[in-house]
Amino acid sequence: MTVKDTLGRHDDWRCFEALLTISPALLIYQYMGFLLSSTTSTSTSIIHHKICTTFISKQTGRQGFDQFGALTLKAIMPEEKSLTITNDSNNKKTPHVLTVAGSDSGAGAGVQADLKACAARGVYCSTVITAVTAQNTLGVQDVSILSEESVAAQLKSVLSDMRVDVVKTGMLPSIAMVKILLDSLKQYPVQALVVDPVMVSTSGDVLAGPSILDTFRKDLFPMADIVTPNLKETSALLGGIQLETISDMRSAAKSLHDMGPRNVLVKGGDLPSSSDAVDIFFNGKDFYELRSSRIQTRNTHGTGCTLASCIAAELAKGSSMLSAVKVAKRYVESVLEYSKSINIGNGSQGPFDHGLKLKRSVCNSSRMQVFEPSDLFLYAVTDSNMNKKWGRSITDAVKAAIEGGATIVQLREKEGETGEFLESAKACVEICRLHNIPLVINDRVDIALACDADGVHVGQSDMPVATVRALVGPDKIIGVSCKTPEQALKAWADGADYVGSGGVFPTNTKANNRTIGLDGLRDVCLASKIPVVAIGGINLGNAKEVMELGVVNLEGVAVVSAVFDRECVAAETRKLYGLLKESVVGKVMV
Ligand SMILES: Cc1ncc(COP(=O)(O)OP(=O)(O)O)c(N)n1
Ligand SMILES: Cc1ncsc1CCOP(=O)(O)O
Ligand SMILES: [Mg+2]
Which residues contact 291 (CB under 8 A, 6 or more apart)? Predict the structure, then answer.
């Protein structure tokens, strides 16, 4: 039996694993030496590299080459140029996937999908483009295959410089390109190779002809850590067999595994006999039936590329193969669900949204407008005790404040259960969206994220603003309570959008809260680089006085008891709104 045969089989792989657990480094070292001395072929030397890297990461507990690993490899493969010896401190590298695939002008699939999937999974993605397709939601209008020289040059550029962890392949339109790829991987080995054997686009257009199938089977698959064909590709690879049941998929996975890949994922998204989307994962020993719900959407273009890229990304981060596959499947299910009603293009198969964000703006479930300083004009802040006292729900309180003219609403619920608060917050988000009024959550970043509120308001002893920003992302509004110019400047520097400054007047609503007075408010406004809303003891009797400060950055007043500790919230809000309007007519800024 040749070394290639030996190592392609799992029994012997397990034997090797057993050696590792006994852990005599010298024994393994000798074993490697024996293997190396007995072969010269491309495929075996790539396998050797795989074994070595597995060995090294097991020995050192780290991904990639560290000094020990590189030295070991250098000792057993002295001619290997791609090995560089690095310091331990350099070992924490950015996970990196290289996609070798075609460009899709519609950006639903291909290289563009791979880039978006890796970005969404937090992994760096470089690209080698094999072909440029003119594609949209109607189909593929044109395909230009890049020259072999160009593909070889792109591979060299990336692999020689950028420490790629995992290579993922998509459209490989010629036999020569497969060979170029395999040669490059021999010269620059990577931790794993994920092969998505793209043959037909989702629109039914052929992207790799039947002549290449033999090269896939004989040359590419034995090098792959996983292959991820869909049903059509599986059938083509196995000579046109019929695949109608899960049992057919299992047999097919086994037959594909016999071609040499370490793992096989047969994707059953198109299986007519199943109401779920069932994929079969086979690692040469065990079969796993991975199920997810079948999402009713036209936006499925690019799911195959995305799944394979996500598997590659998870492997690059250090996951095991099975968990990479499971995470990838869950990710694809979530993005399909999340973007099931986005509407891009006129064709039958649309792209989906890898970032899970687009839906909000496209489907109008998020506020279309960005935050404006004038939103702070009349800021209604709810209070759980006042709502209880007056026997009204949060949603009724919010509706009434909006009816009266509130320009922004904050849910400040200091008591009560998280689950209940979240449900009310979701309902308030809907109400506010309907009226295009921003809704901000006090203190609770978790609730703000879970209900997709427009922002969060935090105080000086709440979660730090920079952390809030990192959690909520760039689009959400962040307000910060500030009593001093220094705090206001820091709030701006940390990424806040507005300052709430007070208490301006004494108040019973917030116990032990130092009053800063109109002078304190003025100082904060003058120093601030972001808009300011005044808060604390403001009511119909003094709101005019606050606004007539006429100080730069002061955009409005925030009130709790003046509107919510009253019988008729809408009427009180309306009165306050009128008063504020009067006070800003002919306002002169100082
Ligand atoms: C608009 C606005 N300004 C200030 C505050 C006070 O927030 P914080 O200091 O976090 O105090 P609590 O509201 O949490 O008691 C606010 N809520 N809104
Ligand atoms: C939350 C808060 N932050 C500073 S003062 C205050 C309470 C404002 O309540 P009211 O408008 O009833 O005085
Ligand atoms: Mg707070």
Answer: 276, 277, 278
Contacts of 498 (CB under 8 A, 6+ apart): 371, 373, 376, 477, 478, 479, 480, 530, 531, 532, 533, 555
Rounded average pLDDT over 213-238: 95
Residue 5 pLDDT class (50, 70, 90 cuts): very low
Q: Other C-beta atoms within 10 Å of 62: how many?
A: 17
Query: Are 404 and 583 in contact, with CB atoms under 8 Å apart?
Result: no
Q: Whole-prediction pTM value?
A: 0.65
Q: Is 379 in the pocket of ligand 1 (CB under 6 A)?
A: yes
For residue 561, give the ligand 2 atom closest to its CA: 12
Q: What is the pLDDT of residues 31-77, one digit of tens each?
A: 454 444 444 343 444 445 555 555 555 554 444 433 333 344 444 44
Tens of pLDDT, residues 451-478: 999 999 999 999 999 999 989 887 799 9
Whole-number Å distance, alpha carbon 412 to ligand 1 midpoint, is 8
Q: Is 206 left (phi over 0), alpha (psi -120 to 50) or beta?
A: beta
Domains of the chain (ranges, CATH numbers) = 3-84 (no CATH), 96-358 (3.40.1190.20), 365-584 (3.20.20.70)
Residues near 225 by beta carbon (within 8 Å), at least 6 away in sequence = 50, 192, 193, 194, 261, 262, 263, 315, 321
